[in-house]
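Reply to dn_fold:

You asked what the input looked like. This is it:
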Amino acid sequence: MRTELKYIELKSGFSDKGTAWIGLVSFSKSGKTVYFNGKGFQSLGGTGVEGGNYYEIGTGNEYWISGVKKNMSDRHKFGGGKIFVEKRILNDYLQIIGRTELPKTGYGLTELDTEKPTERINKLENSQLEKSELDESIYTKTAKELTNSELEFLIEELIDDEKNAKYNKGRRMIKKDRIELETELENRN
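and this is what came back:
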């Protein structure tokens, strides 16, 4: 398995101030999945809404994953917070940045999960595929045309979307759609 030193920063819910690490990541055989700290990540392909370029397969949280910068400007210029450097790669990182020791402010040492959760990530990816095999036509049907199970599925999906909506206007629109579907389901019962 190919490995590289990378800068990893949590973006979901934190903008440019999320927890950040410099650590050793490994890649799947295809190179499409990145493993770090017991998690699996895949590229968002430019579709990130919270400033991320990767998402965690288990939670959907967005992360920024990039190469380590020699000038130590890994965080966004308007960002902030400590960057945790994985202990096992400290010497390699110091060599990259041309220093003999880690700066006292803005950095800390940490130990991370080194397990490569390939089997668990494969199961997650396969379960996501099974969910998406649902007939796409449910998104074009009216509430009255949907079956009870389709209504329940869409309500759950809208609840998740509502929690993760970035803007209040979008959240209100999602809530309106969810209430309409819930009302239809209640009327049937």
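The chain has four helices and eight strands.
Hope that clears it up.
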